[in-house]
Amino acid sequence: MKKLIIAEKPSVARNIADAINAKGRKDGFIEGNEYVITWAFGHLLQLYDMVDYDLSLKGWRLENFPYIPQAFKYKVKASGINKHEVDSGAQKQINIINDLMARADIEGIIAATDDDREGQLIFDEIAMYLKTPKPIERLLLNEWTTDEVLKGLKNLRPNTDMQSLQDAGIGRQLADWLIGINLTSVATVKYRDDEKIKVLNIGRVLLPTLKIIYDRDKEIENFQESKYYKLVAEFNNMTNASFEGIYQEEDSEKFEDQGYLTSIAKDLNGKNAVVISKKVEQKNEYPPYLFNLSNLQGFITSKFKNWTSDKVLKTAQSLYEKKAITYPRTASQVLDESLIERVEKVLNTHKQGNPFADEIAFHTNKRVFDSKKVESHSAIIPTYMIPKSLTAEENVVYDAIKNRFLAQFMPVAESEETVLDIQISDRMLKGIFISKGKVQLVEGWKKIEKITAKEVILPMIEENEQLVVKNSSVAEVKRKAPKAHNEKTLLRVMETCGKSYEEEDSDEMMLAILSGFSIGTPATRAETIKKLKDVGYITTKGKSLVCTDLGKMLVETFPVQDLFDLEYTGKLEKTLADIEKHKFHKNDFINIIEEFIKKSVNDIKNDPKFGAKSTVASDVEVLGQCPECGSPVVQSLKTFGCSNWKNGCKFAIWKDDRYITAFGKSVSPEMIKLLLKNGRVGFRGLISKKGNKFAAYFYYKKDENTGRYNWSMEFIDNMK
Prior knowledge:
This protein is an alpha+beta fold.
């Protein structure tokens, strides 16, 4: 008698076959003495479409929604070329698996798909669809090396132990189907009068990710240019060695008043000074934690050109299937303590021939091994197998993973930081000058990752040493607008569900994040970013990700705002993680989703703004876009207002607006154009109540509490 092993992909099936020395290659399977190995191609099945349940539901009509099936059913997945046809390859493989399951000499089934939520679902779909009565066991591996396959086959678990993982996988699948089918359909029908939009894609993970990018775009758009000033002095000691110091008051070196610093600087040259304090601190610099998938994607996309998160994932998956690295779709940055012996073997393999082999030493500290901080899968590391034939792209990813692994066992980098507090001797100043220097004493792990430390070397200066101010100057510094998101920064926000963090503490913070409280999973985030580009919600400018007009419109007008809420989406993902841990029931989760769908569909149907943009005749001058609904703003007898007033939009500015006329100005078409384009309009020669002339920017903003638009003003000092 034999057992049937079902792998997730043909490449993994070949790895298993090699490990057990099965050489009987047939059409769709490999046969050995004790096992028959076959495979899926990822998902062979998919959920029914609406029309599969009822032919009368063909075509999207608002009255058919919300649609919630009595029971969900599966079918062989559709062709990638024509969704109305069955994928012939998937159908053939399902038939092969079915025939193998039915063979009289097959006594049991072994699930060998990836050990995660999606891998479990891929197998369980097949088992439920084919309804095999034979016992099912689960092979759980983190890598596909021969040693691990043989060890895993001796430690099989009943597939029933994976019920909570299956529940989470099915819960995710049904939730995404319900949200996608219902809200995409209703939103598209509601908005189909816009010829530019064919399908408006709505998704549980898609929209909050879009909102992250939109929010950053708005921060940049609304950024107000400003500047501050710094006072820099150059000091000489008695041996004529020179160095710089920056003036500080109350621990701040930034001053808004240039004149104040100029008054200090004007007679500093030649003044005596004294070092009132010298602090020297030696610091240990530990290597970054091992890679999880998001950090690997961020590292590669920020360091190399023409890489996307999706490309990194696919390359890492290829390395995994070639037995070169461990499971890549992980959120963990440390290793399970059960791997200590295996990891030592891997380290000894990879240190051979390394130029820093003498410095590499195995250890078991908590920065590397900590079972309490492992979520399902350990961090990504190389296996003991040295790959021989990698592509150029695979080498990029493999070297990053290998070097990050080796860095953990290199000496800790050490640096010395010196801080001097300097006081001007014969002038009573409120503050002091600060000079800082840093020297790298031990490179340690930085040699592996080729990190060059920036050194600022101070001359040998002692406490109480006398100095002379050689010269001084006031420097102007412009505050910079926030940078647009790139894939690295976007992945970090998705991973932390928008929770803020300090860059220097990011690794520690990441390890302490509430389990599962994120947007998407490590496996789906890259796909989400790619889909946002594909559906036209975002675009790229260099490495930056920015919203398109369609993406902005969706965020600003789509009535189901919960889907843009990072906190709401994070809670859904957290609930799925809780289902895996037996803390929440799948049916309760689906009930929550169904109620959400009913309310959301109703909100879309009844919303007067979304999908109700108006158009104007070609001979009517359009002054700009309505900030409320995006429709054209035009001139009428008494107002400049939204042309969409028939659908309930109330945006308007009266021509005799009292706020504007009170300053001796009038509301004109040119003013409205500037206001709608830039968000503000500037006036010179405004007249105050006392008769004084001044200049100011005017803003017309909505009060979120009252829903009304009000004027506000910002004085301009240099605009006469």
